[in-house]
Amino acid sequence: LYRPPVRPRPFRRHPQARAQRRDQAAGDRRAGHDAGDDVRAADLHRAARAAQAARRARPGRGVLAVSALRSGDFSSPGDDNSPEDAEGRRAGPRRAGDGLEDEVTWQDVECGSYAADLVLWSQLAREAAGPVLELGAGCGRVALRLAAEGGEVTALDHSAALVAELERRAGARGLELETVVAGAGDFRLDRKFAAIIAPMQLLHLLGGAPGRARMLVRARAHLAPGGALAAALLAERPGPPAPGAPPPLPDVAERDGWVYSSLPLEVRPLAGALEVRRLRQVVAPSGELSEEVDAVRLDPLDPDRFEAEAAAVGLRARERLAVAATDDHVGSVVCVLEVA
User: Fold this and answer.
1) Taking CA atoms, which of 10, 74, 217, 250 is between 20 and 30 Å from 327?
2) Which long-range contacts (CB under 8 A, 24 or more apart) does 33-37 make?
3) Residues 26 and 279: beta-carbon distance below 8 Å
4) Cβ of 310: how many Cβ atoms within 10 Å?
5) Angle at 131 between CA 167 and CA 231, to 5 degrees
6) Is residue 295 a contact partner of residue 276, using CB atoms and an 8 Å limit?
């Protein structure tokens, strides 16, 4: 059964900033901890708050996304910010404690704040004037927005954990949408859609041309007459940082006394693709530090090549739309395709 190997994430500008120094620093941190220097959650959280303040005045750099998490997603059960369910009970978020295996929290930390593309997806959904299927929906960054705007939305993701969290958040906000646990290349639903969307870098994560071909075949089979597939690609290939550019800062969040930090290390060529490496660290309420390097492979792809692949399965290019770059993130090109 085909599964996309990694999560789509927004992509920051200016990668490879002082990666060697940070690798050495990571080793120093590990050595210091093993020697008995406890790392407390509060220490990392204070550093993160200072980093967030500094980030606002600095130019774009780094690898992935910077999070500004919604209080409704990271507040504790019973918090005044937690929405009520249909019976008036507080619908608190899922609790932390899975550390490096906490897929939902990492999705929020690394991807939750990216918003540069949301207006475009909303516009496409309104123009479609019918049901919308999102591929690689994750915890609902896009799907929840479209549902809140009154859209008829189906959110599809291969991760059961992320889909369960998406359902929880939709219920907490009183939103109606359908969810499906399936891969982007193997889904088979009993309905067709006016629009199918694939935000962020999903196209770069499908395992190359064979994986994209499977996705395109399934998408074409699920398009209603006059419907469109809209998929985002990176608008530029990340390059080395500008001379003197500051190193990227970590994405950090605190939840139920657990602190999560994701530090971009580097982007490097790998067998014709790009490998994005991050140092993920988790500090438990007890002060125990866990860490690992997370690596993601991005397949090279440009709009001309993708549109040629689409034509081979009976989809023709209709238009290309742009998601502008921000100070922190590279831009995207959204290819809009329709049945030939």
Assistant:
1) 74
2) 33/289
3) yes
4) 23
5) 85
6) yes
3-state helix, strand, coil in the chain (%, to 5): 30, 25, 45
- Segment 222-247 mean pLDDT: 85
- Give one DSSP letter per residue of 170-198, joined into a string: HHHTT---EEEE--TTT---SS-EEEEEE
With a cut of 90, say whether residue 270 has pLDDT above it: no
- 155-204, pLDDT tens digit by residue? 999 999 999 999 999 999 999 999 999 999 999 999 999 999 999 989 99
DSSP string, 185-240: TT---SS-EEEEEE-TTGGGGSSSHHHHHHHHHHHHHTEEEEEEEEEEEESS---P
19-339: CATH number: 3.40.50.150
Enter the pTM of the model: 0.74
CA geometry: angle at 141 spanning 213 and 199, to 5°?
Answer: 25
On the CB side of 204, how many CA atoms lie within 13 Å of its CA?
A: 30
Q: What's the sign of the alpha-carbon dihedral 132, 115, 11, 238?
A: positive
Mean pLDDT computed over every residue of the chain: 77
CA angle 150, 156, 159 (to 5 degrees): 135
Contact 121, 140 (CB under 8 A): no
Helices (H), the chain: 19-34, 41-55, 71-74, 103-111, 118-128, 143-148, 160-172, 209-221, 303-311
pLDDT given at position 185: 96
DSSP state of 244: T
pLDDT in tens, 82-129: 333 333 333 344 555 567 888 999 999 988 888 999 999 999 999 999
- pLDDT of 9-33, one tens digit each? 565 554 443 334 344 444 444 444 3
